[in-house]
Structures are given as C-alpha cells and as structure tokens.
Design goal:
heterodimer, A: 104 residues, mainly alpha, two-stranded antiparallel sheet, 71% helix, 4% strand, B: mainly alpha, 12 helices
C-alpha cells in the first residue's frame, strides 16, 4: 500500500488537533478553566472504550465476518495471557507474534 | 518548531530550573528505559502499515503519541475516512485533558511557549511519576525543570528507538505480519486498564459494539461503539457506587 500527500494532512490533524491540543489544553489555559466533575469522570472511560473498539474488530474479523478460530485471535489471547503472567515488556509481543505464526 | 520553543528556554536556565531538571531526570530514568520496546514496536508497526521511513518518522515527530499512532494505524491502512481517524485519535487522547488539568497549577509559572512545549511532551509515564512531587514543590522554576527535563529526555529516547524500529523493519519480510504488533501493543495498554470493573465494562461494551455495528456506513459503528462504551463504564461505576452504599 502506498500513500499520497493526504497522509501528511492526516498526521498534522492527528498530531495537532487530536494530540497536542488535549495535552496542552489546561496547561496553556492555566487555572482559569476547569471541567465539571461528571465530564472528568466520563472521560476516564474514553481510552478503554476506544482501544477496545479498535482492537476487538481487528482480531475477531476476517474479511468483514466474525471468525472465532482465526490466528489473529490466537495471537491476541496469547498476548493477554503474557501481560497477566509477567511484567516483562517484550513477552506479550513475542508470545502474540509466535502464536500468530504457529496458528497460520 | 521544537528548537524555536527551546531557544528562549535554554537562555533562561536558572539554578532552580537546573536543580529541578536534575531531580526529575533521576526520578524518570527507569520510565524512559521502559519506553524503548514501545517505540521499537511503533516503528515496526508503522512500516508494517506501509509507511516509508520518512512518513513513519514524520508521524512520530508530528504526533508523538504511541496510543494515537498505534490506534489510528489500522484505520489509516484500511482507508477509513479522515474524520474518523482524527476523531479516534482525539478520543484515545482525552485522558490527556485530565492530565493537563492536573498539571495546570504546578506548571502555571512557565511562559506561554514553555507551557505549549510542556503540552507537546506530555506523556503518561512522566505524568504518573512526577505528579506527586510537582504538587508539593514550592518553587515554580524548579517545577518547570523537574517536569520538562525528563519529558524532553523521554521524547528523545522515543524518537531514537522509533527510528531504530523503522530502519530495522525494512529488513524484515512482509509476510511476518509486523502490523499485528500494533494490535498487541493496544492489548498491552488495555489489559491493565480493564482491572477496574467499570473500565472492563467500558472496554467490553466498546469492543462488542464495534463488531456488531461494523456494517454502519462511514465506519460510524466505531464512534457509536466508543460512545456506548463510555456510557456503559459510567453506568457501571454509578451502579457499583450505589451497591456499595447499600
């Protein structure tokens, strides 16, 4: 797959609008601004919900259909187990990739 | 852009700033080492998604955020609409709004340029490691040094290790499916979050809805799933608190 110039536009929007702006928001605004408690509470769930919404379809779908026996799901399960049994930062990657290759 | 921000900063290095910088650097050294595998994997995954080395390093420097980069890669690679890519990155970065709010008071002594720089280099690791000391340190210049030095150092470690990953990826065959590293990286982020019950509910709902709603036009299902996941987590927390009160 090759990309055209719009890829750079994508980077600038992800980096500026969607990353630097939330990071800098209150640091730059200072103490003048604050968020209501309910909003802060709800925002705590955004990363978990979003990460799952990206990664789950990625590992259970094959060509748009649910496939419960595909190698990617095996790799994902191996990676989850690896994070549970060890604090070694490399292990999930080794286990996940190994399971993916073995099951293919 | 970065060097323009740095110039006035370097000229104003007071002894207080330097003392803070030294202390922050010492405290965050382990965190900066923990970044290395992440950066390598992100480098590999970007090339796995089909980026050239220049495109990959461009993304790394412009975005400088593992979650936003790894989270948007599958969307970029499958040609998802731009608004969805940007909205997804924004959602995974909403946690930074909370971090930023917590840092507003400790970093209020910085100049405007310094505070923008503080925003650009904000990372989970330094935030978690430094927040307690930042809250209690009395000297504003010391606090800026204490936060900025390890943050910039982590940024440097991140970019260097990403570059190593990007260059190494070129010599790895395509059928090794390196892009799957991005999925594993997201799982590694997700698992510790899901230890809290409402967080698990948010993730399970978000993941399930994203699969169920995959047929929606313009990949709107992803956004609907995220909103549903946040609502479910919020509801679960509320329900848990009510049960505890009874």
């Amino acid at each position: 797959m090759t990309y055209d110039w719009t890829l750079w536009l994508t980077f600038i929007l992800i980096g500026g609008l969607a990353t630097t702006l939330p990071r800098a928001s209150f640091i730059v605004l200072g103490e003048r601004a604050s968020l209501p408690d309910a909003v802060l509470k709800a925002l705590r769930y955004a990363p978990a919900a979003a990460l799952a919404a990206i990664v789950v379809p990625d590992v259970v779908l094959v060509n748009g259909a649910v496939d419960a026996l595909n190698p990617k799901l095996g790799g994902a399960i191996a990676a989850v187990l690896a994070t549970r049994v060890s604090r070694n930062p490399w292990l999930p990657f080794v286990a996940g990739m190994a399971a993916l290759w073995l099951l293919r | 852009m970065l060097s323009k921000c740095l110039q006035p900063l370097l000229l104003r290095l007071s002894p207080d700033f330097r003392a803070g910088a030294k202390e922050g650097f010492r405290l965050c050294l382990p965190v900066s080492v923990g970044i290395v595998p992440w950066a390598l994997v992100t480098g590999l995954a970007m090339v796995g998604a089909g980026f050239t080395p220049v495109q990959a390093m461009g993304m790394s420097l412009i975005v400088f955020g593992a979650t936003a980069q790894l989270g948007t890669l599958p969307l970029i690679a499958t040609g998802a609409p731009l608004w969805l890519i940007v909205a997804t990155a924004l959602v995974v970065n909403l946690r930074f709004v909370i971090f930023s709010a917590a840092l507003a008071r400790p970093l209020s002594g910085g100049t405007l340029a310094e505070r923008w720089l503080c925003g650009y280099v904000l990372t989970d690791g330094v935030f978690a490691t430094c927040l307690e000391r930042l809250r209690n340190a009395p000297d504003p210049r010391w606090r800026i040094g204490f936060y900025l030095a390890p943050s910039l150092w982590c940024g440097l470690m991140w970019q260097s290790a990403t570059l190593v990953g990007v260059l190494a990826a070129g010599s790895i065959p395509r059928n090794w499916s390196l892009e799957f590293m991005a999925s594993i990286a997201l799982i590694v982020l997700l698992v510790p979050m899901a230890k809290l019950r409402p967080m698990l509910v948010a993730a399970a709902t978000g993941g399930t809805l994203a699969v169920v709603l995959r047929g929606m036009p313009l990949r709107l299902g992803v956004m609907a799933a995220i909103v549903g996941g946040i609502a479910a987590g919020f509801a679960a927390e509320h329900w848990q608190a009510r049960r505890a009160a009874q």
